[in-house]
Amino acid sequence: MFKALITATVLSLAPLVAVADEMTDVISDQLQAFQKRDVGTAWGYASPMIQGQFFDPRSFAHIVEQGYGPIWNNATARFGMSMAQDGRVLQTVIVTDQAGQTQVYEYDMIETDAGWKVNGVRPIEMPDVAV
Asked: What are the UniProt keywords, alphabetically (predicted)?
């Protein structure tokens, strides 16, 4: 009985894990595109709302480069907590740039007909860590 309950619980979580993997793949792929300065590919991971705000990949890249330097110059990224809210998912991402500076961002992710897209990014305070 207990084994069946554990199996049922694990199986019910499988779709959530798949969704989390899809979202983190999108964020990772967009960050890799920024590393390569492949603005067209990075643009493709942006939601229709973001694409509508910036009109073309060049203006999008300019905003990311000027306002989100650690993302533009990212070297590594680690994924923190995610939270579903109002039909979207907020994903915490800890980005370290090529100069070694670290910034935490909250990615607003939405699901579209074309899959998960980045609907916005905002810097957040890095939590204090007790040692």
From this structure: Signal
The domain segmentation of the chain, as residue ranges, is 2-124
Answer whether CATH 3.30.1280.10 is correct for domain 2-124: no
CB 67 within 8 A of CB 36: no
Segment (H or E) for 11: helix 2-35
Residue 79 Cα distances to 24, 96, 106, 113, angstroms: 8, 12, 10, 24
C-alpha 23 chain-centroid distance: 7
Quick: pLDDT tens for 61-91.
Answer: 999 999 999 999 999 999 999 988 787 899 9
Asked if 90 contacts 82 with a C-beta cutoff of 8 angstroms, the reply is yes
pLDDT-above-90 percentage for the chain: 69
Maximal CA-CA distance, the chain: 58
